[in-house]
Amino acid sequence: MAEVTDEYDVVVLGAGAVGENVADRASRTGLSVAVVEPALVGGECSYWACMPSKALLRPGDVLAAARAVPGAAAAVTGRIDPAAVLVRRDEVAAHWDDTGQVAWLEGAGLTLLRGRARFTAPRALVVEGVDGTVRTVTARRAVVVATGSVPVVPGTFADVRPWTSREATSTHRVPPRLAVVGGGVVATELATAFADLGSEVTVLVRGGRLLAAAEPFAGEAVARALTDRGVRVLLGTSVTSAVRDGDEVRLVVERRSTAGRHGDETERLTVDEVLVATGRRPATDDLGLETLGLRPGDALEVDDRLQVTGVDGGWLFAAGDVTGRTATTHQGKYDARVVGDVIAARFDPRPAAEGQPGRGGRGLSRQAEAQAAPWSRYRATADVAAVPQVVFTRPQVAWVGRTHDQAQRDGLEVEVLAYELGGLGGASVTAEGYEGRVQLVVDVARDVVLGATFVGPDVADMLHAATVAVVGEVPLSRLWHAVPSYPTLSEVWLRLLEAAGR
């Protein structure tokens, strides 16, 4: 095998959406940056998560929207064409070809190293290329770990070749019968998508509701909608046995006793595929972290600069799923912008301007990075209590900031404001029988919005206004002067303020 020795200012492990953004931002003051990726540039989001899953979900959304409007509904005479949906999904996922992503990366002046990296010492790695090349790579300034996460598959399913989100979003076959194990974002979205495509879907949830991280009414709305479309949603379950028998998977499912019944109930369920969506864990197993005094398999604990704690020298950073702080592409890219700017400023290779300690990115100095306060571009402050999340089920669910329970656990006195979207003029224009709900969690002492949850068709596009309110800590008295356009769903902000007596 050929051996090569390379040296760069910054080395980024992982070329997904997070790693790409880190590398781009870190290079903006002239630092040389290499990105190490063993698979496809663009990562999970582009090929097995955000993009293909939304391509699977979109046809059902469009069809439901048309059927909800008299006049348009009469034009809908057929059903979803699964084959055509999968063809379009392939196009959205670029046919799992990263040529375009590689062109962007290299066009930005970044170096791509195809292979797997392992630490051998601080700022030193060995990269085993897919072509057999072994590179010794040294980072003069910083290394950023952006390797993402991998699905957690319980041992019960070890021998049945279950689907994870990867297999589900890239399949070219719609299974007649599908069991979905889990009740979170991946489980509910893919249950929705495959029900639209014609699968007989059963959702097996360990807990007592769907979308446990959201307000309870959100998960209840999604469960009702799935049930109305013929999906079985079984709460309080555990799969005690899973056996693959030819083209079928046989499951033994135990359900906790419900009111009026005694003892657990056991059900035998036969399906064509089982999708395990029970969570993900940081992809840190095979990075050689033990050489740095860190434990493989664990999340990398970071501060708000995204600098890994427990490693001296200020050279090791991490961003995205691998930190355990965030589990969405958009929040991971936010973290990537922060850490990229920190590195660009801290290690700015350009000479300091006369009378200045250093120019840093966009005229900001190294000193500015070192002294940056929360909510500056050098601190990932939003990770604490301003994280937005969208679930593209039908109805959609979108929330940002604290839920009611989280605010109470934080010891805050809160007021809850809620409004049914169906009462708005914009709702009657949007769809016949529009149903949805918005809820705000308000800090009584400061009179600012701590969190917001939206449930209903197309509410994802309403979330950013709430995100701005949460991040900006805008007083409700000032929000009264943010006049919503009529007739739109955003009029709900006025109704909520009226309910609060503002």
Give a verbal description of the structure.
The chain has helices at 17-26, 43-48, 50-67, 82-92, 99-107, 165-170, 185-197, 216-228, 329-346, 366-370, 382-385, 404-409, 425-430, 463-472, 476-479, 492-499; strands at 3-13, 33-37, 111-121, 124-129, 134-145, 149-151, 177-181, 200-204, 232-234, 237-245, 248-255, 265-271, 273-276, 280-282, 316-318, 388-391, 396-401, 414-420, 437-443, 448-456. The chain has 502 residues and is α/β, with parallel strands linked by helices. The chain has four domains: 3-42 and 98-150 and 281-382, FAD/NAD(P)-binding domain (3-Layer(bba) Sandwich), CATH 3.50.50; 53-92, no CATH class; 155-278, 3-Layer(bba) Sandwich (FAD/NAD(P)-binding domain); 395-499, Enolase-like, domain 1 (2-Layer Sandwich), CATH 3.30.390.30. The protein has a five-stranded mixed beta barrel with strand order 1-2-3-4-5. A hairpin with a 2-residue loop joins strand 10 (237-245) and strand 11. The longest helix is centred in the first third of the chain and has 18 residues, at 50-67.
